[in-house]
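pipeline/complex-builder :: batch 7 item 3
reading input block
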Amino acid sequence: MSALHTVNNAHRRALGPIATPDRLLLGPGPSNAHPTVLQALSRNPIGHLDPLYVELMGEVQELLRYAWQTDNRLTIPMSGTGSAAMEAALANTLEPGDKVLIAVKGYFGLRLADMAGRYRADVVTIERPWGEAFTLEEIEAALREHRPAILGMVHAETSTGILQPMEGVGELCRQYGCLLLLDTVTSLGAVPVHLDDWQVDLAYSCSQKGLSCPPGLGPFTMGPRAEAKMEARRGKVPNWYLDVTLLNQYWGTDRVYHHTAPVNMNFGMREALRLLAEEGLEHAWARHRRNAESLWAGLEALGLELHAPEHLRLPTLTTVRIPEGVDGKAFTLHLLNKHGIEVGGGLGALAGKVWRIGLMGYNSRAENVELLLELFRTELPAFRPGAQTGRPAAVAV
Amino acid sequence: MSALHTVNNAHRRALGPIATPDRLLLGPGPSNAHPTVLQALSRNPIGHLDPLYVELMGEVQELLRYAWQTDNRLTIPMSGTGSAAMEAALANTLEPGDKVLIAVKGYFGLRLADMAGRYRADVVTIERPWGEAFTLEEIEAALREHRPAILGMVHAETSTGILQPMEGVGELCRQYGCLLLLDTVTSLGAVPVHLDDWQVDLAYSCSQKGLSCPPGLGPFTMGPRAEAKMEARRGKVPNWYLDVTLLNQYWGTDRVYHHTAPVNMNFGMREALRLLAEEGLEHAWARHRRNAESLWAGLEALGLELHAPEHLRLPTLTTVRIPEGVDGKAFTLHLLNKHGIEVGGGLGALAGKVWRIGLMGYNSRAENVELLLELFRTELPAFRPGAQTGRPAAVAV
C-alpha cells in the first residue's frame, strides 16, 4: 500500500475511553450546558447542504434575532468561538487606515484593539480602570476628538464584572457618523440587550455562557449600516474563513457552499435558543438578576468585598476581591479538586486580586448560589491567614 | 429591569425539540460519526484551563502526530473547520509579497490560491484538468521558474477524487528552498500519509471525514522549517484567531489563555483519534482501500464510468460520471428523501457531471458499499432517459 514507508508507532497511545468528571462550572465560562443541548449535540450529523439543515439554519438565525432583539438580516453563528465572531466584526468592516476607537475597561477591550491593529486600522483607545465603566460624556469627547469610523466597546466585561450602560451611546455614534460595535459575549440571553433600540451596528457573542451550549460557535450580527460599509470595501475581506460576503451566500437564499458547517454544534445551538425562546427573554433576564443578587448579598454577608460597584454590576459574572493574605488560587483548586466546582481567577490587571464567579444560562439557579455560598462560608476560613487547623487536605491536581 | 425598552417577540418562534433524521452520509463530507464519538460530544463540558482538559489536549496532540506520522511539536486542532486550518497554514507563514505557488487541480486548490491572495502573497498557480494529478517534472519546472517561498498542494482533492502522488515532492521543495504545504482534508486517517517522510512542512485536515467525528475542528501541524519562517515574521500574524504564536502559548507548556476552546468538540476528537490508534493506521488504510475497490468494481460492473484514472483514484472519495441524459440531482434527491442516503454532486468544473461518493472513517464498511450498489442497480435505471415506468414517485423535499 505504501511500501516505501513504514508506520511509526512512537506517538501511538493506547488510551481508555474518555472519563472526564461532571464539574459544576461557576467560572467565567464555559458554563454547564443544558442537558437537552448535550443530547442535541450527540445526534447523528446531517449534511450541511441537506434541505433539513438549511431549515435548521433559518431557525437558528431567527432565534438569534430574538435573543439580540434585532431585525438584522445578517445574523448567523460563526463557525468558531466568540473570539472568531469578534474578529469577524472587525475583519469585514475595517479597511486599512480606518480609524477605530476602542473603549478599553478590561481584558476584552484590549483584545479588540489588538485584533483591529492586525487589520491595519488606525487604532486609538480610551481607557477606564478595570472595574469602572464609561460615561456618555467620556464617549462623546473621544468621538469628537478622534472621529472614528467604528467605536468598539464591551457590554459585559468578563474580566471585571462590569456592565457598560448603553443608553445614549448609539445616538452619539449616529451623530458622529461612526458604527457602533458591541461585545455581548457575557450578556446575550442573560442580561437585557436591545441591539436595535440601542442602534448597535455590529455585535457578537458566544455559545457557552447565557445560551447554555458548549463553546464552539460565535453568534454574529451586522446591521444595514455595517453591511453598507462592508459592501463598499475596495478589496476582498482579508480573512477568508470569516468573510461575511461569502458566508452570506451560504446562510442567505443562495446556499452556496462556503465551508462545511459544524453541524452538531448548530444542533446544540438550535436547542439552546429554543429553550431561551420557551422561557422568554424577560424571564431569563429576571432569573439571572435574582440569582446574582442572592449571590451578592450572601457574599457580602460573609464579609467579602465585591469588586464592581452595585450600579454597574454584571449579573452573569461577579468579581469578588480575594481577602488579604488568602491564596486565591489554592482555594479555587480546592473547590475544583475536592468539590468539582470551577470558579475563575482574575485576568490581566486583576490577576491574583479577584475570583470570578459565573452564574450563566442553565447554571443561574438558586441551588448553585446556595451551594457556593455554603462552601465559601465553611471552607474559605481555612485558607485565611493564621488558619492552621481544619484546613482541608490538599488534593493533588 | 430595562424599563426603557420592551421585548419584541417578532422573531420569537415556538419550536419543537430537534428531530433531524438518521442519515447515511456517503457524500463528500460530513461523514457519519462513530457512535462513541457522539457519546463523547454529549459529555458535560469542563473548563478549558482545567488540569484534566490540559491533559486531554496533550492526548489529542499526540494522537494527531500518530495519525499524520509526524514529530511536529506544533500539532493542534484549530477551533474551526478544516477551512480554518487551511487558512491558518497560510496566515501564519505568509508575509506580504511572498511568492506562493499553488498547484491547482480542483476546487480546493483554487481556495488555497484565493486565501493566499488575501494575505497579500504574490500568488502564482500551475493547473491540471479536474481529474488529473501533477508529475514531478511539472512541479520541478514550476519551482525552477517561480522560486516560491511556499508550494501549496492538495493531497486528496475532494472535488475530483484524485490522489496526488507525493514521492519526491518534498525533496524538490528542499532543493528549491521552499516550504511544502499539503491539504490532507480527505486523506488523514484513511489514506497513507507520511508527513515527515514526505518532508511536508505544513498540513491541515478536518474532523468529519477519515476521523469519524462531526465537523468543527481543523487539525493543523507545522514543522520546524515553517516554524522558523513564522518566527522570522516582521509583524504580527494578520489573523488573531488563528495566530499560532498565541495558540502555542495555550497548547504549549505555558497554557496561557487565548480563546475558550470548543471543549466538547475536542472530547469527540479525542475519542475519534483513540479509535484510530486502537485500529491502527495500517488497518484503517487497508480497510478504506478494500471498501473503495469493492465500490469501484461494483459501479463498473453496472456500466458506470469512474472519473479518476485507477492509479490516481482516491479511496475516500469516488467520482462517478453521471450517465448521458440522467438528471443527477434528481437521483441524489431521491436517495436522500426516499432512502435517507446522502451522495454528493459535482463542484466547480465538475458540477452536473459527476456524483461524489464518500466512504470515509466509520462509514467505510462493506455493508454501506453493498447497500449503495444495490440502490444504483435497482433504482438508477428509472432515472435513465426513456424510462417511463417504474420510476419511484418523487418525494417532496
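note: The mean pLDDT of chain A is 95.
queue -> next item
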